[in-house]
Write a structure and sequence with these properties.
about 550 residues, 17 helices, about 25% strand, globular
């Protein structure tokens, strides 16, 4: 096809997702405002050429473009083209389920959360369990945990289970507790808490490991149902400009479904799967060793361990008491002996270890174990990670670079938590919280993510939070602890080349260079020149993965 810019409209650069070519297919997208990071420097270009799944060349402005009937030319109409964005910490199955359950996000009272569940039940008659996610009591006027009583008024005979926004606490009605056999005599499990009233009766709130007491009674999804949910989630995620996701904690059966989707060549984006430890058959799965699919669409070389809970539910493990809850330090979900077993087993098997740690105590415990076990297993090259690295002792910040441990962080957690974080940890400890600048200054690598569905999977929300430290109402005016903000270049790096590095894929992903994979996105607005307060509003026009367009607005 010959170049003819006047003939191209947005519809013209939409080509079939299912078309398969037995011969090499070369495509050249011209007339773009192109940006990529190359060796820590920003490179600009006006056209990109790729053959099948690999990039051939970037053309700078004024450089002569080739003329060939064998090249498909696409006019980018002056829009911005950037590397595909990588979410280093998301939960694909949970996100898919969130699209199919009651959404309680943004509810501003216990009553409004109950009403959202009631409306969901009305539009989904016949469901055996009412499930949902997204409530956050810190946004409510009284900031208190909800109770089963408010749900019982509307659901006397139908079990209800509503997860908190962070997934570290759940809200059950009386029917759900009855089905689970919960009574006043039921003991809280290790690493979990049943919230009780003054008489010792469970209120309906279950924190961290205690959630299992309820969820074990919920009928599990069939394999086919999980497959449908995963595909729904993946097809939605690429619309946000995500070309790769590190799936933070899946079970073996979930991994097998990803393998099926990969073998069927229908994965629209790249998946880096982390096996959750402990889970059914985890040791047998690790013994099979890491693997990567031939097209690099599915990668399995890491595990996910959870050391503590979340800050909002006061499950994060702190060294000293919570500033707003005397006598309470949060929860470690596993004792040191068990944590050592999980970490050491994975390291010896050749797997990268990615451990969830939010509180300063959990972070110190994990850094201490990493320091000991990385040396014992000689696994420093595996680039182990701490997921969230949210509340840190200032003295622990330099240890990330010293141990070659990656800080896998989510910028939107800072702007979501700003209303309660100082209450939880006080004005002194907050100086080591969400400390992106301190970590970067200490030469740590930050891999960015969102922790969806806890937060929106939209990476432009994360880029905006990284740069402004503000919410979408531009508050606070100068940014929340703005001294910890990133530059636009650093923020983009955390969602591209550094996120690729965190997945051992920086040689094929994360930047647009000759020989690398053709994963990129076309944007409505220019990320580098638009008002920084509008970054979160940017829209993705199209997403390419492996040289194929997988999304068109």
């Amino acid at each position: 096809m010959k170049k003819s810019s006047k003939l191209f409209s947005y519809a013209a650069f939409s080509f079939s997702l299912v078309a398969q070519f037995a011969f090499s297919q070369t495509t050249l997208i011209e007339n773009v405002q192109g940006y990529t990071l190359v060796e820590s420097k920003l490179k600009q270009f006006s056209a990109i050429q790729f053959t099948d799944d690999k990039i051939d060349k970037l053309y700078i402005k004024g450089e002569t473009l080739p003329k060939s009937k064998n090249i498909t030319f696409i006019n980018g109409h002056g829009k911005t083209l950037m590397p595909g964005l990588i979410d280093a910490h998301g939960h694909i199955l949970s996100y898919g389920l969130s699209l199919m359950q009651a959404s309680l996000l943004g509810t501003l009272s216990e009553d409004s959360a109950v009403k959202a569940a009631v409306e969901y039940a009305k539009t989904n008659p016949g469901i055996t369990w009412v499930q949902g996610r997204g409530w956050n009591q810190t946004l409510w006027a009284n900031t208190q945990f909800p109770t089963a009583k408010s749900l019982d008024e509307h659901f006397p005979n139908t079990p209800v289970w509503l997860r908190r926004v962070d997934g570290h606490a759940g809200w059950a009605n009386t029917k759900a507790m009855e089905l689970a056999g919960i009574t006043s005599e039921t003991k809280s499990p290790e690493g979990g808490a049943i919230i009780r009233d003054k008489s010792g009766k469970p209120t309906g709130i279950f924190v961290d490991n205690a959630m299992d007491l309820i969820t074990k009674s919920i009928p599990p999804l069939t394999k086919q149902e999980k497959k449908i949910v995963l595909q729904k989630a993946l097809n939605k995620l690429v619309s946000f400009g995500l070309t790769s996701v590190h799936d933070a904690g899946i079970f073996t059966d979930n991994l097998e479904i990803f393998k099926e989707l990969s073998n069927e060549n229908i994965l629209p984006m790249r998946i880096n799967a982390m096996l959750y430890l402990p889970s059914d058959h985890w040791q047998e799965t690790l013994k099979q060793g890491p693997f990567t699919s031939s097209d690099n669409m599915l990668n399995f070389n890491s595990v996910k361990i959870q050391a503590d809970g979340a800050l909002g539910s006061r499950g994060a493990s702190l060294i000293a008491d919570y500033s707003d809850h005397a006598g309470h330090k949060g929860l470690l979900l596993h004792n040191k002996k068990k944590l050592t077993k999980y970490i050491q087993t994975a390291m010896k098997a050749g797997f990268q270890v990615n451990t969830h740690a939010i509180g300063d105590n959990a972070n110190k415990v994990i850094l201490d174990l990493y320091q000991e076990l990385i040396k014992a297993t000689k696994s420093q090259a595996l680039r182990h990670r701490i997921e969230h690295a949210q509340i840190l002792q200032l003295s622990d910040i330099p240890r990330f670079a010293e141990l070659n441990v990656i800080a896998s962080m989510q910028a939107t957690h800072a702007t979501s938590d700003k209303n309660m974080a100082v209450d939880r940890v006080g004005k002194q400890r907050i100086l080591g919280a969400y400390a992106w600048r301190k970590l970067l200054n200490a030469q740590a690598v930050i891999a960015a993510g969102s922790d969806f569905p806890v937060e929106s999977p939209n990476p432009f929300f994360g880029l905006h939070s990284s740069v402004t430290r503000q919410d979408h109402q531009n508050q606070p005016e100068n940014g929340w602890y703005s001294e910890e903000s990133m530059t636009r270049l650093e923020a983009l790096r955390s969602f591209t080349i550094d996120a690729a590095y965190a997945g051992h894929q920086e040689n094929i992903l994360g930047s647009l260079e000759k020989g690398k994979k053709a994963d990129f996105i076309l944007l409505e607005n220019n990320y580098f020149t638009e008002n920084q307060q509008n970054i979160w509003k940017n829209k993705v026009l199209a997403t390419w993965v492996n040289g194929k367009k997988v999304y068109q607005k």
